[in-house]
Amino acid sequence: MKKLRELLSKGKEPTEQRVESTVKELNEKDFDAFIGKADKPVLVDFWAEWCMPCLAMAPIVESLAKKYAGKALFAKVNVDENPGLAMRFGIYGIPTFIIFVNGKEVRRIVGAVGKAGLEAELSKFIA
């Protein structure tokens, strides 16, 4: 409270604290290491900035990441910035969600399936 009063008395507003995302951004350099060392199921969101359905699903992925923290890991891959990963995993439509368990793909969901649809698929792999 003292710090807040001090800032306000100087005519400065306190800066908003940045909330850390629970969804890790992956690229071609760190993808294999992240997926390979994961001891929980990993849901990877393949997306692009220009994709409206992808943008609609982003807050859903964030909310699931918070809900299943400690039970699953969540990551995203921008296909425009990582075309090698998009090609490697045969991403032809976005958003595409791939669930990995023990480093292997176990489920693929294509399209903006909504929270219930995505959660239903993910829950099959969470103990």
Automatic annotation (TrEMBL):
The keyword Nucleus does not apply. GO terms for cellular component: cytoplasm. The active site is at residues 51, 54. It comes from the Archaea. GO terms for molecular function: protein-disulfide reductase activity. PROSITE patterns: THIOREDOXIN_2. Residues 8-127 form the Thioredoxin domain. This is Thioredoxin. Disulfide bonds join 51-54. The record marks 52-53 as: Contributes to redox potential value. NCBIfam families: thioredoxin. Keywords: Disulfide bond, Electron transport, Redox-active center, Transport. InterPro entries: Thioredoxin, Thioredoxin-like_sf, Thioredoxin_domain. Residues 1-20 are annotated as: Disordered. It holds the Pfam family Thioredoxin. The record marks 45 as: Deprotonates C-terminal active site Cys.
